[in-house]
Every structure is written in C-alpha cells, then in structure tokens.
C-alpha cells in the first residue's frame, strides 16, 4: 500500500517536472521570437518602385527622367527608431519626467504591436492607396537637373565645365564655417535627403509615399546636428528656421502647452496657440488620407541652450533668452502673438520638444502662389464671413475661376475634410507651386492650430463640402475604408504616430483626440450621404478607367 503510494507520488513529481520544463522551453521560444521581430517595424511603404538615375546631369534644376528614389536604399527600420527613442528617453531621464521603467515598457508595447497585425501596413497595401499615376513628364516635375549641354550653353559655366571634365565633385562657392564640404555629383545617391525630397516633388503630390527617401528625410530631420537657428519671418507666431551642416533647413515650432491641454472655449480660433504635436499629427493624417500634400514633419527633443541659444546669429532672438525662477532656460522671440515674457517657451531645464518640418525648395527656385480661401473666416470678434450668412454661397464659387474648372473645388473640399478631422479653423490661405498653374495639388501648410479640442467638433469647417456637395470619388472611398474595423482611422493614426521619435516621450495624440477622429469621420460621411440624398452630381469621378 505504502509502496504504491510512494510510486504514484513519484510519478506526480515526474509529471510536474516535465510540465515545468515544457513551460520554460515555451517561454524561451516566445522571448526569442519577440526579440527577433523587434527589427521589423511597420513602414509606410512596402514596395517601392525603383527609378533610374540619369547619367551626366548636373544639379541645378530637375530633368524629367532623373529621380529622387534609389532602390539601393532601405526603409527606416526599428534600429533607427529605437535610436530616437533611446535619445529621447536619455534626455528625458535627464529631465526627470520619464523613468527608465516606463520607457522600457513603451518600447515593449511597440515591439508587441510590431509582432501583431499592422493595420497601417494593410491600409497602405490597399488598391486605393496604390492608384497608378501617369509617369511624370518633363513638365510634371517641380525641379529638374540640368543636362550637361544645357549647362554648357549658359555663359557662366566655365568652372562647372572644368568640374565636369575632371569628373570632380561639386564645390560650394563659399565654404562657410561649420558647413560640410559639398560632395554631390550628378549621381542621385550622393544627394542629401532634403535635396532628394525637393527633386521628387511633382504636379500631383509633394512626395511619393513609397519612396524610401521619405524615411531618410525624417531620420535626417530628427538627428542632424543643428548648426544655426534664426527666427522665421512670415506668419504671426514664433517659429524658427534651423540650419543643418549639409545646407538642409527645417521649420521649427516649439511645444507651448502640454499634450492634453484643451484650447479654452473662450479663445477665438485666431488667438489659439500653435501646437508642435498638431504639425506632426497633421502630416501623418494627410498621408493616411492619401493626399501627400504636407511636407514631412518630425518631432525632436532639442537642447534649447546648445541647439538654439549658442548657435543663433539672430540678435532679435538671442536678446529674449532668460532663466526662469525655477532655473529653466526660456525665450520668447519677436512676433505678433505670444512673443512676450508672459508667454515664454521653456526647456526643462534645457530639453524642449519641437516639431521640424522639411522646408520646401527656396522661392527663387520654385515660386509659390498664395490663394485666399473662399471659406476664410472673418478673423474678427464681431463680423461673420459671407459664406456663414449665405447658404447658396457655393453657387458663386463654382462659377468663379479657378474653382469653375478642373479639380480646384474638390481639392479645396479635400482640405476642408482634413481640417474638419483635426478641427483646424485657421485655413485662411493655401499655396500652390506657380510652375504648375491651376492643374496641381494644394499645399496644406501651417497646421499648428489643429487638434486643439477633442470634446467638441466644429461643423462650420465642413462648409465647403456641405454647401457645394461635391467630393472626389477616391477621397470618399478612402474615407469609407477608414471606418472599417480593419483600417479604423484612430488605429492607423495611433500606429503611424508611434513611428515618430517623440512618441517615446508620450503619445503624440491622446486617446480622446484619436477617438474624435472616428467620430468626425462618421460626421463627414453623414454629410456626404445627405448630399447624395438631395443631389445627383455629388461625386467627382477621378477614378474613371480604374476597376
Ligand atoms: N515647410 C515649409 N517650407 C517652406 N515654407 C513654409 C513651410 N511651412 C510654412 N512655410 C511658409 O511660412 C509661412 C509661415 O508659416 P506658418 O503659416 O506655419 O506660420 P504662422 O505663424 O502659423 O502663420 P499664420 O499666423 O499666418 O497662421 C507660410 O505662409 C509659408 O509660406
Ligand atoms: Mn498658423
């Protein structure tokens, strides 16, 4: 009896030992697979169309067949993003706002998300995000590289010719202090990311989502050494232009309020602060809508002292630096709104979150035209704009050039949809590249006043859609797709924003802002439905000929 009991206890022990061994093995296997997948981050582009490089072209303006893309480049993968996160969490550790544990936890979440199904990847694989564009012709590129003959034909090119004959690299006329020696050749691979971005701009979009250069550009903006910083003129609020050693530049907007602060309901739209995270989020949203009309924007933690104060040559700016009572370094600059001691931009004590937007080509190379929006607000505390009083306002707009012809009206409505989703009431003007005349996309610049309130929507932003009852078919189909659970706008937006370096500090948009996107999307589709119930020509069919 006792012997039997002993035997069965032994087999129970043996069984338990086997079970524990199996569990350990399973655990080890799971950890290994998680670590391995950490190197595969979802990226915006899964397949990129390699383009050919033109030989024997010298940089000045673009040639129709040359290209900004190169198949030899890889998309940014997690090591780069991880690097940003490390960078940010190190600085924040210094700031004492984020513990190491929290940062590891966030990384862990990111890794787990990578392992799981990516809605963002699925979205960008959808045919609606891969519509074939016609092959750009010479006139469809914003810039082109001059051919050797063109260079030879112009008078001042003796030096250039010498360079070319020697097959030497391009030299900067004046080697300024701190700037890199220029080593660009006609080979596109030698061009810095900002230049390749410029050379990739076409009549239809600012960038090709699938072009690997996009990843290089955002990495470049997030990590390049800042050589100089000056206040940028134009506009009403404080913003800086930072300069990089290889002649790249970025437009910087500083963090002025915590991420979760909601705009005071008693503030008029024209008195609202600009938000760095709105600039970043707007870029992601515009890309998710398939527009590609906002220059790439990336977040970065900068050192206010070493990366602004010590490198600025702008006296108007440097005069405004001070140390706050708690020892933080602050400045306020000179501008119309919020440039005073009462509204300082402060580091903690040196670390400051900012957004960096890629600069568009210089106006001397690519002039732009600024258009006053027909649905511009009055920018007055008392007056209403005409469109707010006249429900038939669109009838007049529809008959007025350039809205009476081509895609301008539906382009404007696309912009209204983007603005309604982020609740941006500050779209007084928009710009286009002069070279393309009226047949081109609209630049969605200046999005700093978006994402101010999540608990409230602003239906008047949709006035162009609601009053004109017109919408691009491709836009409507994408909007519908974004309501499906497998592509839900809030989910793809969360995933897209997680790729930004500042996501390691805190999510760029809080959850209430993300759910507001889904709610507003439903409102847009409701407005379209009401239009379709009452009118027959709501759809502008830009998909004719597609299956
Ligand atoms: N990425 C960019 N590249 C080049 N120029 C830009 C870029 N973004 C904005 N600009 C230019 O700088 C001007 C001012 O920028 P922005 O509109 O963001 O400033 P703002 O102070 O918010 O202006 P406003 O007070 O008019 O709203 C814009 O009108 C535009 O012409
Ligand atoms: Mn603005």
TrEMBL record:
GO terms for biological process: enamel mineralization. It is found in: Golgi apparatus. One of its GO terms (cellular component) is Golgi apparatus. Residues 321-536 form the FAM20 C-terminal domain. ATP binds at residues 237, 253, 274, 357-360, 431, 446. Signal peptide: none annotated. InterPro entries: FAM20, FAM20_C. It comes from the Eukaryota. Keywords: ATP-binding, Disulfide bond, Glycoprotein, Golgi apparatus, Manganese, Metal-binding, Nucleotide-binding. Coiled coil: none annotated. This is FAM20 C-terminal domain-containing protein. It comes from Anabas testudineus.
């Amino acid at each position: 009896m006792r012997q039997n009991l002993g035997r069965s206890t032994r087999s129970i022990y043996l069984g338990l030992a086997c079970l524990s061994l199996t569990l350990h093995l399973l655990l080890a296997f799971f950890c290994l697979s998680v670590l391995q997948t950490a190197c595969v981050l979802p990226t915006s582009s899964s397949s990129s169309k390699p383009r050919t490089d033109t030989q024997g072209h010298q940089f000045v303006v673009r040639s129709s067949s040359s290209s900004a893309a190169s198949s030899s480049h890889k998309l940014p993968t997690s090591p780069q993003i991880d690097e940003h996160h490390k960078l940010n969490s190190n600085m924040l550790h210094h700031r004492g706002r984020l513990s190491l544990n929290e940062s590891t936890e966030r990384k862990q979440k990111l890794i787990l998300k990578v392992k799981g199904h990516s809605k963002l990847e699925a979205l960008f694989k959808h045919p609606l995000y891969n519509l074939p564009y016609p092959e750009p012709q010479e006139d469809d590129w914003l810039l082109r590289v001059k051919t050797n003959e063109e260079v030879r034909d112009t008078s001042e090119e003796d030096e250039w010719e010498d360079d070319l004959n020697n097959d030497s690299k391009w030299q900067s006329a004046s080697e300024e202090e701190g700037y890199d020696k220029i080593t660009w050749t006609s080979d596109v691979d030698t061009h810095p990311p900002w230049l390749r971005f410029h050379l990739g701009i076409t009549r239809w979009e600012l960038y090709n989502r699938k072009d690997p250069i996009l990843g290089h550009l955002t990495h470049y903006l997030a990590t390049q050494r800042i050589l100089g910083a000056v206040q940028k003129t134009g506009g009403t609020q404080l913003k800086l232009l930072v300069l990089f050693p290889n002649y790249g530049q970025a437009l910087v907007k500083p963090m002025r309020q915590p991420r979760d602060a909601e705009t005071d309901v008693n503030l008029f739209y024209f008195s609202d602060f600009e938000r760095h995270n709105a600039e970043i989020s707007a870029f992601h949203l515009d890309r998710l809508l398939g527009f590609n009309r906002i220059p790439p924007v990336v977040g970065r933690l900068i050192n206010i002292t070493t990366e602004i104060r010590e490198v600025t040559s702008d006296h108007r700016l440097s005069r405004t630096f001070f140390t706050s009572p708690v020892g933080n370094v602050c400045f306020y600059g000179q501008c119309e709104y919020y440039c005073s001691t009462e509204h300082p931009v402060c580091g903690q004590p040196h670390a400051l979150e900012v957004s960096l937007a890629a600069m568009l080509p210089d106006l001397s190379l690519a002039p732009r035209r600024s258009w006053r929006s027909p649905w511009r607000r009055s920018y007055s505390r008392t007056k209403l704009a005409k469109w707010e009083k006249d429900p038939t306002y669109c009838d007049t707009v529809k008959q007025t050039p350039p809205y009476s012809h081509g895609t301008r009206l539906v382009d404007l409505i696309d912009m209204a949809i983007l603005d309604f989703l982020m609740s941006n009431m500050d779209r007084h003007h928009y710009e286009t590249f002069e070279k393309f005349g009226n047949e081109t996309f609209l630049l969605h610049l200046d999005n700093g006043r978006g994402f101010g309130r999540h608990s409230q929507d602003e239906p008047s932003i949709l006035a162009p859609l609601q009053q004109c009852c017109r919408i691009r078919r491709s836009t409507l189909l994408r909007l519908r797709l974004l309501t499906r659970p497998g592509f839900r706008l809030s989910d793809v937006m969360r995933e897209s924003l997680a790729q930004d370096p500042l996501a390691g500090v805190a999510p760029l948009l809080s959850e209430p802002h993300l759910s507001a996107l889904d709610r507003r999307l439903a409102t847009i589709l409701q407005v379209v439905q009401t239009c379709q119930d009452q009118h027959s020509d709501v759809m502008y069919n830009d998909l004719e000929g597609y299956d």
